Amino acid sequence: MILAAAKQRFAESGYERATIRAIAADANIDPSMVMRYFGNKDQLFAAAADFDLELPDFSEVDQHQLGARLVAYFMDRWERDEALVVLLRSATTNPEAAQRMREIFAGQLMPVIAKVKPDAPERRAGLVATQMIGLATCRYVLKLPPVVEMSRDEVVAWLGPTVQRYLEGPR
C-alpha cells in the first residue's frame, strides 16, 4: 500500500516535490509509519524504484567500438534521469536500494552483453557495471572535480578502452 502510493506520487510529482506526508496521505496512514518501514525518502524511493535502463540492441554495433558505445550510452542515461542518481546515492547506504541496483544491472545489462558476447556474460556485465556505476558515483554523486570537468568525449575516450577490454576478455 505504501509502495503503491509512493510510486504514484513520485511519478506524478517527481522526487523533489514528493513528500513523506503526501505519500502517507495517499496511503491513508500516518507519516510515522512510512518512516518506520522505510527510514527516509531516499530509502522509500529506492524501494519504489522500477527503472528501465532502456538499453538498445548493440548487436549491430562494430564489436571493436562496443566499449565506447556503452560508455556513451550510460553517460546519456545517467544525465537524463535524476531518479537513477537518487537510487545510486541511496544504494550506498540502504541494502534494499543496493539490491534494487543489483537487480537492474543483472536483469537488464547482462542479457544485452550476452547477446553480443555469449562467453561469460555475467562476468563481463559485472565488470562493465563496475565502470558505469563507478563513473556515475564519481561524476554525479561525489562530483569529483577532475571527473566532472571532463567532457563526454573525454570520458568515453578514457573509459571506452577499459570497457572494451572487459568485453573482449583477458588477452
Map the helices and strands.
Blueprint: H1 2-17, H2 20-27, H3 31-38, H4 41-48, H5 66-80, H6 82-91, H7 95-116, H8 121-141, H9 145-148, H10 152-168
Helix pairs in contact: 1-2, 1-4, 2-3, 4-6, 4-7, 5-8, 5-10, 6-7, 7-8, 8-10
Short description:
This protein has 10 helices and no strands.
Question: Can you describe this structure?
Answer:
Helices cover 75% and strands 0% of the residues. The protein is elongated, with a radius of gyration of 18 Å. It is built from ten helices and no strands. The model has no long low-confidence stretch (mean pLDDT 90). The chain has 171 residues and is mostly helical. The protein folds into two domains: 2-48, Arc Repressor Mutant, subunit A; 66-168, Orthogonal Bundle (Tetracycline Repressor, domain 2), CATH 1.10.357.
Q: Give the distance, in angstroms, between the N- and C-terminal Cα atoms.
A: 52 Å
Number of strands: 0
Number of domains: 2
Strand-pairing-aware structural class: mainly alpha
Strand content: under 5%
Q: Indicate the CATH architecture of the largest domain.
A: Orthogonal Bundle
Outline type: elongated
How helical, in percent, are the residues?
over 70%
- CATH secondary-structure class of the largest domain: Mainly Alpha
Low-pLDDT stretches are none
Q: SSE order in H/E notation?
A: HHHHHHHHHH
Rg of Cα set: 18 Å
CATH topology of the largest domain: Tetracycline Repressor, domain 2
Mean pLDDT: 90
